[in-house]
């Protein structure tokens, strides 16, 4: 499909691009929804394929006569070849330019502002009157603070009501500035519209970021035809609101470089969201100095805020006649050029060749940057021809194309083109040349234009999401990812580090088979022991003292370090790639453990005189970024992948590659079983492995922190992709820098497996037929990673899309984990089950604090999936298990901030579900809790004779340690990173559901997605009962302590209510004064959700028992990038 050159895509015949009459309200009656259209727009070459031939049904409307225009400046079609200009009018429009029409239109009182060359205004196109109406609202598809009133039980207090305002062009670009990560709490009033305060960090990025992905100073671009000058509208109005504006003497408003590519993404992902308090047009670095950038304000009256839920297919082609934004720079260069040659070169550096703008385009919707082109150096006529295939789930009035200059002092605004979302609802291609308007609503330069095309395809027309996991030989898996679908092989799914025999009930699968509970660390131990060629390990933390086996066998005393050293002495290549914690150091014999206590320096020293090679890999931003950005990335972000890669027996005297991937690091505190003991193993299994970072000070007699996690083993072609990830990272990390260039490189440490004859290649690995009930398709290996952490990404950003990578300003990004989650959620038909260490996202749709930048789509997609099913009168359920609080002290600033963002995420989801219930008139019959529930895990042990006695000090009776010893309870820390959809698809890996893990430029992550083609709804036409079903049932058996029949139908209301009831009962037992043994660990998350979706603390339980800290968090000033 290629609509980018189509002449028939969008009919440019509407002199009023923004219809002023709101279509009639849709009929929300109860009958079943209309059947989906029979046309199938799915098409494979693009990540989110669809066809423009089937426009989205648009509401029936009739405009017999255009309404009187409001004072406005719109983008209208311009034509350079007409002979007579129309008379001036008080409005101007921003629409495609047309150079080929020969006749001017008759004068009209509603025509555009005077332009010194003629142009054409087209008649209104007829609107089909046979299609159903979508829901169109003036404010938002999801309004907060609904004025509806419902009878409620006494325990559900009435939520406060907010007053949504009609958005208009007068305020749509107001109060935009950079996010201040360290701003005070006053920056964030509940309304989210307060003024900003200066950043604690100076905006040095602007002074140090004159770097580009493509710095081709000799690049030539096609010369555009000379265009007549454009006279700006005399009536264009511009309103500047808010404080902290910064500009130079020429009123040039500056944005900021996005050194981290914080949410500025192209490809299958969306980027940074902003509220009215923050600018989507100044690409923020993660330190986010508080500068405000004003964008063009064009008075257009009220625009309809519509929900775009589907995909946008965008092409940014080129721009012509851009202004030279570097005149000051050129003058500075000329001045330095008069100095002696060597002096001038040293002072000026590479600036002497910089003579004009370095433009790029950011694409924004609803305040979130969803794509960005690469920078083209020194061009006033840049040609990008860059495509974006973007999933969207945003409420917005317009899509903005912001043209900016990447300058040595920052990113300077050139101008903006705005496309109303209402035009996109037709589903046709909107394309053309558009005048680029500056911050005064006038053309930024006579003849300055941007050529774009954009098409919206709603979810109803994306057949890839309609039938769950695809089946058949043509299924391509998750589109738009770096690693493709790999068929064949097997997957072993693990819960916790160890599951003792007989610990969990037997589970029956289809065809008389039984689910086998895996033993993760035992399998890893055995795989290392049996390796003959290579053992490659990546980890956030790897501790040489950890014991993988603790069941009393002969190998129970063997540590990981001893095992790896023994294998290296056998000739096995052993490589460890471990995150280098910047706070742990070993300088001249002086050592520091580091804040995170990852044991990285300790492990490196242990293997120093062995053939085991340990590479401590810092998280770096790359030399193209500013010093501040490099410091931030190196201090805050981590390498978070956890993989073990070994060679294994392939039969016939051949070897193959297998890989372990998931959330378990090989370090202290991770070994646990489904019983999750608190006190009873302190003197046995966990005697030398006590871990509980919640407490500070004396921890004698305190409960350990139980650890719940998910992991998997991949045996098949996809294991080679995990190997490729390790090789790409190793080659990048081992590249010598500075004085290390004098030493030998680590490059030779990697084995070239293609040269080892007994190791079979990816294409030769044994595969299991998809007709085999035990066969698997490992869809893809997914990652969150950027070109600063891997070697092998394209050097030219123009080649990024060929690898399904995303362009940042100075980096290429693989963010396929987020793509995989979005695809799986959209394809879900019955239920979603998530276990994750964090759950924060979709901040652009929060009622306040929209500026935070937690822009991943996952929470919003889940809420919209539930809303979709409610409107279709179909059952759907989502279960989300998270920790009771993030690891550490829950009263600390960072933890409270994370809990606060988590609460905002929950609130947004529940309110979205309530809105859907109201739309179909079911708000009295059902509550949001009938569709979405959050849980946590906890344990409590009764006193028995095996417990050690501890004499409590009277002065410490009220400390968290003393209270925990007395109450004998503690949370089970959920460190899982996985999702199960419809019992047919599973994602497991290292990625949390937050911006750090999903963005790709922050923490590095890896995950896998897999399914069994024999066990899918599409093939079986009923509940699948394969390994993924057994895995979920095993997890629920661990959490609830039982198996019930309703568990086999997780989408049913019966199952939802039963699990919620069990969670409520377990919470009461956990929080009670009486100490009793807990058989089930599943606790309803301790918040109250009323029938309108308002989330509040439980009455009488606003803080966590024993430990303290507000359950719904609190807004304490701390850097957002650390907490989202």
From TrEMBL:
Annotated segments matching region Disordered: 1-36, 57-114, 130-240
Entry EC no(s): 3.1.4.4
Molecular-function GO terms, alphabetical: metal ion binding; phospholipase D activity
A GO CC annotation given for this chain: plasma membrane
Catalyzed chemical reaction(s): a 1,2-diacyl-sn-glycero-3-phosphocholine + H2O = a 1,2-diacyl-sn-glycero-3-phosphate + choline + H(+)
Compositionally biased spans, kind Polar residues: 132-146, 152-174, 181-198
Pfam family, one: C2
Single GO BP term: phospholipid catabolic process
Keywords: Calcium, Hydrolase, Lipid degradation, Lipid metabolism, Metal-binding, Repeat
Pro residues biased stretches: 14-36
C2 domain ranges (all copies): 288-434
Coiled-coil intervals: none
Family: Belongs to the phospholipase D family. C2-PLD subfamily.
UniProt protein name: Phospholipase D alpha 1
Organism whose genome encodes this protein: Cephalotus follicularis (Albany pitcher plant)
